[in-house]
Structure formats: structure tokens, C-alpha cells
Amino acid sequence: MGLVLLASCAQPQRSPPTGPREPRPVPTAAASASSPSRPVPPPVLAAWTDPEAVAQLAGDCHWAPAVQPNEASPLSCEVHAEQTCNWNECDGEEETCVGACVAVCGACGDVCAGRCDTCKSTCRDDACRRACAASCGQCRQTCLTTKDHCATGGCRDQVITCSDRLHADYDKSGCSKRVPRFQACIEGCLKKAEEVDGGGEALAQGRECQSTCESSVMSGCERYFSYYRVY
Q1: Sign of the C-alpha dihedral, residues 42, 43, 48, 50?
Q2: Nearest-CA neighbor of 83 among 73, 94, 67, 72?
Q3: Structure confidence at residue 37 (pLDDT)
């Protein structure tokens, strides 16, 4: 702040204007009406029980918010899992488990919508339809809660069990004893490539050497690649 003040003080002082100031033009109603209006963004819905969601369900029991690219709606059964660069079989188990949770959630939502249709089929006024929609919203929110418990709790426990099993199998396999020779093989391969043609692009050359050395040194240990990979 001090530097800013000093810089301001260095500016030449200007004399205040002596003449009368001209009034600023005030926008007229006609000018305001002619100016383009900004589009109003749709409301952000956090739950199926939100009033806006219930209002949509009152019109259509099968309504769902528009899908946004690369963004999961809080009302969606979808789960955006984090990608890993060091994949192993336990990541595959997690994908399968989460996929099953998502499928069950979708089927659950279909049941809620069907019940809502049945409920509204006997309605004669808007109040009845809103009551059916509110019940549908609560039903669909329960589907999401169940999905969240499944994907975070149940699948996480499954991944922990898988990881413990994979690590125990790796310890018993004897593959860990080959890792120093595998790493030395990669270093030698990279050094040779450097002498021949300057080594090329580092990451691509490293992966090529890793693949060559895995075939010659770590044959039969591919299941545990995530434990010994370098590139």
C-alpha cells in the first residue's frame, strides 16, 4: 500500500475545474427497454426435493436436468471417478463396483417415476399432482443417497480388500527381488540409446526401454506392474 501511495504522490497535481459540470445523461425507459437483456441462468438444483425439481416432476414424472459436459449434476446417478496413471486390477474392480451402483440408482429412479405416473393418473387438480411429484422427488433422492453409500462406502471397502490381497500376492511372488535388475536394465538401455542417437524424446524412450526390460527381466510379473513401473 505504501508503494502505491508513493507512486500516486509522484503524479503532477491538477487544478480543480472552475466551470460548472455538465450533468450526466440519465438512461431513459425506452433506452433501457431497447438494451439486450442477459439470459437468466437456470436455477442450480442440489436435490430432487428442491421446489424447482418438484415443479418439473409435477409436469413430467420422468423429467431430468440437462446433462452438462464434464460435470455431474447433483441429481444424476453418474459418478465421475478420478483417473489413475498407475492402474492395477483393483482399479478395475472399483470401476465395476461403481458401475453397478450407478445402474441400480438408475433402475431405482425408473421405479420412482413409474409410481409417480400411477399416482398422478388419479389426480383431478394441481395440488394432487404436486403431492405426487413431491413424493417422487423424495423417492429419487433416496436413490441417490443409496448410490453414494454404495459407491463410496461399499466400493471403497472392496478396493481395500483387493489392494491387501494384491500386495500379499506380490510379496509371495518373488517379483520384488527382480526389481533392482529391472531398474538397472532400464538405465543401461537409456544410456545405450543416448550413445546411438541422442536418446530421442525422454518419456517415449523411457517407456520403450521399460517395455523391453519388462519382457526380459519381469516376465510373469505383469500383474504387479504398478509396483515396479518407472515410466
Answers
A1: negative
A2: 94
A3: 62
Which tens digits make up the pLDDT trace of 136-189?
999 999 999 999 999 999 999 999 999 999 999 999 999 999 999 999 999 999
Handedness of CA 189, 191, 195, 198 (dihedral sign): positive
- pLDDT per position as a tens digit, 46-101: 999 999 999 999 999 999 998 877 777 899 999 877 778 899 999 999 999 999 99
2 part of a folded domain:
no
Both 138 and 205 in one domain: the answer is no
How many C-beta atoms surround the C-beta of residue 87 within 10 A?
13
Tell me how far apart the alpha carbons of residues 12 and 8 are, in angstroms, rounded to a whole number: 9
Which residues, 6+ apart, have CB-to-CB distance to 86 below 8 Å?
226, 229
Torsional class of 72: left (φ above 0), alpha (ψ -120 to 50), beta (otherwise): beta
Torsion of CA 208, 209, 210, 216, to 10 degrees: 120
Q: What pLDDT score was predicted for residue 24? A: 55
Residue-range definition of the domain harbouring residue 186 = 175-228
Q: Are 63 and 45 in contact (CB under 8 A)?
A: no
- Residue 167 belongs to some domain of the structure: yes
Output DSSP code: residue 123.
Answer: -
